[in-house]
Amino acid sequence: MSKQNHFEREIKKTVLNYLLDKNKLKNNVTVISELTIDSFSRRVDLVVLNDHKMIAYEIKSDADSLNRLPGQLDKYQQYFDKVVVVSTLKHINNILTTVPENIEVWEVTDSKVTVRKRGKVNKFLAKEDYLDLLKVNDMRRLASIMKVNISGSKSEVRRIIMDNISKIKRENLKVFVLSTISKRFHLTSSAFLENITTTRKVTLNDLNILSPYVSVRKIYSLFEESIIEKSK
Asked: Quick one: which of 51, 14, 46, 57 has its CA closest to 29?
């Protein structure tokens, strides 16, 4: 959700601190908050691009319902190498008994993360699903790489690429898509990582830097707010 509740933000902060402690937030990583997918019909709470993999983290706080979770997980498994559901004691048993075998489950209690169920990497992502993560200009660049002549609307461009999809290997397509997404979120992700590197701590103010709507000028202001918060 674009307007995150306080409980969700606290869990997201805990998840990022856990990843930081596990040395999973290095400079070559891209961190994305609130990534829209599936023609903007779904919004993933947290995404981390690392080691040529896209990992999605879906957060369910005490204020959330689990009604939408099955549909969310079905869709996420089309796009991400791994999916992790992060929740609290309130929901954890229901989640453990209902999620598919390959979905990982984390429990957050008192700002600590416990891995309750290990997940598996999805090795069979389809080429056509990767195209859904691209904007029309991205697809035009892809078509140029594939040496395919294109024109028209996004749907027409996508159709032409699909007609020629055999001209590119799935792994090469994945590299293109991950690189494109990383560049799209480079400003916010690199600013976030730079801000947490020295203090080795993620605060709620740091989450604001990850907003897809933040401007360059606003990032400097958020830096100052984060420094003040960490100095208390």
From this structure: 51
Q: Which residue is listed with tokens 């996508």?
A: 158
Where do we find the tokens 């090469």? 172
Domain extents for the chain?
6-122, 127-183
Break the chain down into helix, strand, coil percent, rounded to 5: 50, 20, 30
Per DSSP, the chain holds a count of helices (H) and strands (E) of 10, 6
d(CA 147, CA 106): 44
Q: Can you give the pTM of this predicted structure? A: 0.89
Find, among 155, 106, 164, 115, the residue nearest to 134 by Cα: 155
Amino acid at 160: I
25 and 19 in contact (C-beta within 8 Å)?
yes
Specify the CATH number of the domain 6-122: 3.40.1350
Find out whether 88 and 79 touch, Cβ atoms under 8 Å: no
Structure-token pair, residue 175: 């590299």
Residue type for position 24: K
For tokens 């790489």, name the residue: 145
30/20 Cα distance (integer angstroms): 13
Give pLDDT tens digits for 121-152.
998 889 999 999 999 999 999 999 999 998 88
d(CA 163, CA 156): 11
CA-to-CA distance for 26 and 190, rounded, in angstroms? 10
The two tokens of residue 126 are 């389809």
